[in-house]
Amino acid sequence: MPASTNAPLPVQQRAWETRERILEAAVTCLAEDGYAAATTSRIQARSGVSRGSLLHQFPSREDLLIAAVQHLAAARTATLDAPPFERGDVDASIDALWNSHHGTLFAATLELWVAAKNHPDLATALAPREHELGRAIRGAVAEMFGPEIAGRPWFADFVSVLLTSLRGAALTYTFAARDHALDPLLDVWKRLVRLYLASDEGAARWRVSVR
C-alpha cells in the first residue's frame, strides 16, 4: 500500500527543514532589515517557527548568525558551480559573476562584512568562511572560463583584480539603485578578459601592465 501523503515527516527531516527555514529567514532579515535589526525575534517571526524550535536549533543570536554565514557561503558558491552555459563563454561568465554580486545573498553578506568591523566574534567566524568562499569562487571562475583561459600563467592575478572590481562596483548599488544588467562596466570587463586572457597577444600586455 502506498504511503499516505499526509504522513508526518521523520523527526530528522523535520528538524532539517526547520533549520533551513530559520537560516533562509536570517538571510532575508540581514538583506532587508540590516544586521542590527536581524534579531532572533524577527527571524523567528519571518521563519514561522516557534520560539522553542529556534532556540533548540540556535541557542543564541551569535550561533544563528554564524550558521547564516555558513549557509550564505554554500548558497553563494552554488550560484556559480553549475552555470547554464558552456565553459569558455566569456560574456556569459562575466554576466554570471556580476549577477552573483546582486540580490539577497550579496546584500546579506554585505551586512555581515560591515558588522564584522565592530563585532570581533563575528569577524572571527566570518574570516575563515570568506577565505574558503574566495577559493571556491576562484575555482568556479576557472571552470566557467575553461581550461585554455584558466591555464594562462597570469590568470590568478587577473581574477583577483576582476573580483575586486566587481565587488567595488556592486557596492555603489547600495545607495544608487538601478538595473545592474545595464552597467557600462559589463562591457569593459568582457573586453579586458578578451584582451588579457583570451588571446596570445594578451600575454605581453599583461606582463607590462603589472611590472
TrEMBL record:
<dbReference type="InterPro" id="IPR001647">
    <property type="entry name" value="HTH_TetR"/>
</dbReference>
<keyword id="KW-0238">DNA-binding</keyword>
<dbReference type="InterPro" id="IPR050109">
    <property type="entry name" value="HTH-type_TetR-like_transc_reg"/>
</dbReference>
<dbReference type="InterPro" id="IPR009057">
    <property type="entry name" value="Homeodomain-like_sf"/>
</dbReference>
<feature type="domain" description="HTH tetR-type">
    <location>
        <begin position="16"/>
        <end position="76"/>
    </location>
</feature>
<dbReference type="Pfam" id="PF00440">
    <property type="entry name" value="TetR_N"/>
</dbReference>
<protein>
    <submittedName>
        <fullName>TetR/AcrR family transcriptional regulator</fullName>
    </submittedName>
</protein>
<feature type="DNA-binding region" description="H-T-H motif">
    <location>
        <begin position="39"/>
        <end position="58"/>
    </location>
</feature>
